[in-house]
Amino acid sequence: MTHECNFILELPLRPRRSYLLRADGFSLIELTLAVSIVGVLAALAFPNYMEFIEKARVARAISELHGLAKDIKGFALAVGTYPNSLADIGRTTTLDPWGSPYQYWRVECGTVDDISSVAKLKLRRK
Asked: How much is the pTM?
């Protein structure tokens, strides 16, 4: 004997989603983890960034000092004496990378070698 079962398969209009498959947003744990990771990466990167900025400032200062020395030597060759101030070579508002004005002192006593040895001080990088 055979039984026939007639039934209708009804599909819901909207498929049910499980809680894990919902895309409503991030959980508090996920957000905390993401913020923590970003914080750790920033804490590691910031000192390196500041060191890079400081090295760039030192390199810029060295370059500007070479330019000032060239202008001072050019003035001395043209006029026969060293300038009294940076204003004599047209450099009145020159600021270093840290925002302070460059200072120039004319050494009155000594030879030209003494003056050039003072101008050739080397900056050491840390």
From this structure: 0.57
